[in-house]
Amino acid sequence: MVASLRLAVAGVGNNISALFQGAELYRRMSAQGIAESEFPGVKRPRIGGLGVSDLRFVAAFDPHPNKVGREFHQAVLAEPNNYPLLAGELPAVDVGVDPGLSEKDVDETSPAFRRVVQRLRESDAEVLLYSLPTGLQWAATAYARAALAAGVAFVNCTPELVARSPELLAAYEQAGVPLIGDDLASHLGTSVVHRALLGLLSQRGLTLTSSYQLNFGGNEDFRNLREQGASKRQSKLNALAQDGVDTGNVEVIPSAGFVAHLKDHKVAILNIEGQGWAGTPVSLDLKLQVQDSSNAAGVIIDLIRIAAASRRAGVGGFAAAAVRILKSPAGGHPSYSDEDIEASFRVLDTVSELAEATAGQ
Amino acid sequence: MVASLRLAVAGVGNNISALFQGAELYRRMSAQGIAESEFPGVKRPRIGGLGVSDLRFVAAFDPHPNKVGREFHQAVLAEPNNYPLLAGELPAVDVGVDPGLSEKDVDETSPAFRRVVQRLRESDAEVLLYSLPTGLQWAATAYARAALAAGVAFVNCTPELVARSPELLAAYEQAGVPLIGDDLASHLGTSVVHRALLGLLSQRGLTLTSSYQLNFGGNEDFRNLREQGASKRQSKLNALAQDGVDTGNVEVIPSAGFVAHLKDHKVAILNIEGQGWAGTPVSLDLKLQVQDSSNAAGVIIDLIRIAAASRRAGVGGFAAAAVRILKSPAGGHPSYSDEDIEASFRVLDTVSELAEATAGQ
Amino acid sequence: MVASLRLAVAGVGNNISALFQGAELYRRMSAQGIAESEFPGVKRPRIGGLGVSDLRFVAAFDPHPNKVGREFHQAVLAEPNNYPLLAGELPAVDVGVDPGLSEKDVDETSPAFRRVVQRLRESDAEVLLYSLPTGLQWAATAYARAALAAGVAFVNCTPELVARSPELLAAYEQAGVPLIGDDLASHLGTSVVHRALLGLLSQRGLTLTSSYQLNFGGNEDFRNLREQGASKRQSKLNALAQDGVDTGNVEVIPSAGFVAHLKDHKVAILNIEGQGWAGTPVSLDLKLQVQDSSNAAGVIIDLIRIAAASRRAGVGGFAAAAVRILKSPAGGHPSYSDEDIEASFRVLDTVSELAEATAGQ
Amino acid sequence: MVASLRLAVAGVGNNISALFQGAELYRRMSAQGIAESEFPGVKRPRIGGLGVSDLRFVAAFDPHPNKVGREFHQAVLAEPNNYPLLAGELPAVDVGVDPGLSEKDVDETSPAFRRVVQRLRESDAEVLLYSLPTGLQWAATAYARAALAAGVAFVNCTPELVARSPELLAAYEQAGVPLIGDDLASHLGTSVVHRALLGLLSQRGLTLTSSYQLNFGGNEDFRNLREQGASKRQSKLNALAQDGVDTGNVEVIPSAGFVAHLKDHKVAILNIEGQGWAGTPVSLDLKLQVQDSSNAAGVIIDLIRIAAASRRAGVGGFAAAAVRILKSPAGGHPSYSDEDIEASFRVLDTVSELAEATAGQ
């Protein structure tokens, strides 16, 4: 049996609550004799030998006053987190939340920075998962440097530039430490549904007339949304344009409103108007409802397992296995073929199997 | 320039109205200088050199009392047809609607049968398009035999067994006459959207919990729906099962109701419930609205061009080019690869180009 | 404190499961100190002094083989019933389900009929609630006669003719026994929403162009739907016409499909197209989802309390208090003013208060 | 026959385009022999004898550079206006658009102010309709003063404080000039639908759990929306609270997004979650689509006819007839009973009839 993945986290938000609670839930299903191939919402039961509940939280950094100093399993439920409590009592995790880095601690010689590196080392973490709120480029860079200094693999869930930074990527590669990023693609996001439907329209030979997409919800992402909306909107429109969609009459509103009572639920409204034979109209209206942070955690579970398995296999830098579940992978999507990706997964699995075989001798 | 496609039709319903009016509309667009690559709702502007308005209706068979004896361009607007009149006055088509075959005329020696064969010959038709109401196996077979006797290519839009009949297919192949069928796949049908979304769910690693699909509308298909619903339901569920969907909690209602005022519009309601990470719920609700007969005509235009171009190229039997736009192609879907299909289109185009080059000398 | 309502039921379907489980749930809320004014989904916490959990099931009749002979609390969960089990274990109700009457037992001298009368008497039932499947006029009449013979108040939930029968009503009035019916109006049914929106359109001065309403679900009502749909459709269209709606372009499909996995959930799809100023279009699309049998039980709880309180007050025949929650009340809706209805409720309350005061002396 | 209503407008936006084009369209219907009782989207064919096409635009003020100096019928189609051109060519209206007042012209002695008063007098306007963009309190007040100075009735479509200002109202009353405002209620707005559905829920005894309402569109109101959203949101929530709705879990987003290609169409998404019997869930999802400015014009046509008829009848100040179609009427809604409103309409009709009878002698 493989050893559990030793995970450190920077940011103890809803995504981490979802990751923690989900892993616990699957552990209980397993204890009830449910086969992991039957776990709902899991695409790959094993990556590099690691299952979805083989997870141990060994360090946590978050500057929020409601979280600092609390034990990890309490901090994941502290406001403004509002991911639901899924499964009765949570198991205690005897790891206190550390305030981590602030904007004045980015120098590698600062005491705070050195303390973070030390905690990563002492905790024997394999992976540092970065998921602080979007927009803190300084934090993303500083934690990535701290992880590198501690020899810990780094996973960047946010759009900040980390794995796409040639300098950082080169440093990780040289050190033989995995660096996975940037910006996770949701498990079932609005954009992937929107693109699938627009692609279908085009593939069948219908003509797009207009389309819109609105997203709203009740978590912190939507509270601060209206400011950050513009860049997210453009990046989503760019993605559509790359698919060959004429975005002239297409609108994307990443953050149409903050609806507090929705909590961590996200609702998306999608409309597509097109023309078929003889120019007659075709119209699609769709409402998509998801648990926003489950939508992230369902992908994070793969990213961290790829990172940990790569580290165990001694493979540094980016791993092709992560490409399909990142919005902006190191090197860009076109650098990786389907074969690259499959080969990357196979390497992780093979090394894990060899390690187990050796361990068993 | 290629000669127009000389088309005979068995059945003068909404589909034929849509086909006729659409071709006329595109002809007018062309006359206004709109490039055919800009035609809305057209996937392939040319097949074997034939454009979407290169169409001449040369014979028409339909036993409905409102249609028999009327000129073609009037019959397409006669009740119970209720496809909208799209584009002002329709051009006159000096072809009277013939009652065609009845159930007692299926013998090839009967006077009615011989008359139909003779009309096909005299009209110099290249293709006989069969689109009488669903369920008349005797009629589908009889018209297919009449077309074969007249050396005219046959296209079967309905689920009746024609191109899948080994005997009929062999006879067409031996005679070098094209036989295209069975059962057209809509341009953008409910099933193709349903399958795309279920496929996306599965590809992303979410778990399907339940799903339903309901269709309703106001044309003749929906009036007589409730009887024929059962077999159509099963065939749609089978198609989903072939995609690997566990159809235990999936329901398809092909004909949920006749709503007269919708006329030829079809509305479909789709729901998908699934589970993401930690079993948290994901839900999709979709409303799809289409002009039902445009949805058929947008595919018929390709089927008849494939049939005519194959006949001009001297290729008998089934043409791989038609596979993707048929629900039950001769030989079944798995018999044809993407390469087969592309090769089939290329043959039609090449022969047409050679013919033009020769003609130009 | 008033004594619990002693209830006999003819029919142990989903509605009775909902009624029984709801009463139990509210009892537990009460035990937890939740005030009855805070009970969700309850319009009138008290009628004639009776609360929503003051309910005792004392006799039950149902011919279904899965139910006959079983104890009441087990029978409510037996197939084809599929109302969810809401609240953990149900309290035992030591009442066996009796097969009751069959079509050959309608004569008052038949042994079965006499046995039913005797059971009603022995059980000391105050009310017989009739909710067998729709369409059994003989059963509705026979049970109404049996209740009358036993001096038990009768509530008819179905469209069968009982309280609207002048003979039956006169007999109940003469005997001083309450008779409440016919045909319960859902707590929040599709029709009431449809009528509210069409009424709003008209009141604001917009013009209705067309509208449709489709209902589907997974309980027995929807399984056998397509046969019974026609009369239900006409009765719903009539109700709209009475509101002054021009139903020329309005369609109602009471039973668009049986979707097994929806179980006791009902889904309704509503569309309204209209014209505002300058004839420009207005459109409303609505999806309504309800727990079908809760929708009935939320009204049944009022009907049976009205019946029991009337009987306790010595008032026979129909009670105006029930008018708003019946589709076809005795005498028809226009016979009762709002004042009549309020007065009727007040009588029940006053008598109950007097009775308590007297009992307290 | 009554003389046409002589109308001056401050603001030549989409609402005025809708008003102008609608009046013209109904005029053409009338010319085709369509009875005014059959006009689509018209609640009251006559108010004080005035029909919906008895409208003459005699003066227009708007500071927008695309409009100043152009003839009225051209200005209504100038950008950023994007109400559709409904009915072919518009009739010429030989009235040039005047820049009107700017923020420095609010003093009654300023030349601009005096010019506006003079234009109103010279044009012989009966009513000045104020519909400049929301938020210009100075402009609303200044135009109201100018109208009063010219003896012209004033109608305020915006939320600015005019008719609710005790000083202004007293001045109008004293002068015997009608003052109608403030803030028009849409013909069929999202709020009225939302309130109707929440009211229905409550009336039927179901419990509201949560609700949201989002509005989006492509006209200027939605472009500048996000700033003005907060006050509009609060006013809509207040309206719900006045209906007795517990707005704790209710969210209203007046301006969820600017979707340019929607132009003057508004889309509203509404969700209501509730609990029925036994706390089981009830859910309503609604999509409402309207032509935003028709939604205003359908009410403006009544407000200006009430104003003109009041002036003709010599009745100054506010008119009860306008109460139901204003969001914030002078004195507040509770000051007026249904009887007051009907009486107010009757006065206008009677005076008009008398005037005609006298004129006919």
Can you describe this structure?
The structure is a homotetramer. The first copy, chain A, is of the alpha/beta class and about 350 residues long. Chain A has two domains: about 5-185 and about 295-360, Rossmann fold; about 190-290, Dihydrodipicolinate Reductase, domain 2 (2-Layer Sandwich), CATH 3.30.360.10. The first copy, chain A, contains ten helices and ten strands. In chain A, the strands form two sheets. A six-stranded parallel β-sheet of chain A has the order 3-2-1-4-5-6, sandwiched between helices. In chain A, strands 8-7-9-10 form a four-stranded mixed β-sheet. In chain A, β5, α5 (about 165-175) and β6 (about 180) form a beta-alpha-beta unit. The longest helix of chain A has 23 residues, at about 340-360. Chain A is globular. Chains in contact: A-B, A-D, B-C, C-D. The interface between B and C is medium-sized, with 21 and 20 residues. β10 (about 280-290) of chain A pairs antiparallel with β10 of chain B, so a sheet runs across the interface.
How would the blueprint of this fold be written?
Four copies of one chain form a homotetramer.
Chain A lengths: L4 E6 L3 H18 L23 E7 L10 H4 L21 E2 L12 H12 L4 E4 L6 H14 L2 E4 L9 H10 L3 E2 L9 H15 L2 E11 L2 H4 L1 H18 L7 E9 L6 E11 L5 E11 H22 L24 H23 L1
Helix pairs in contact in A: 1-9, 3-4, 9-10
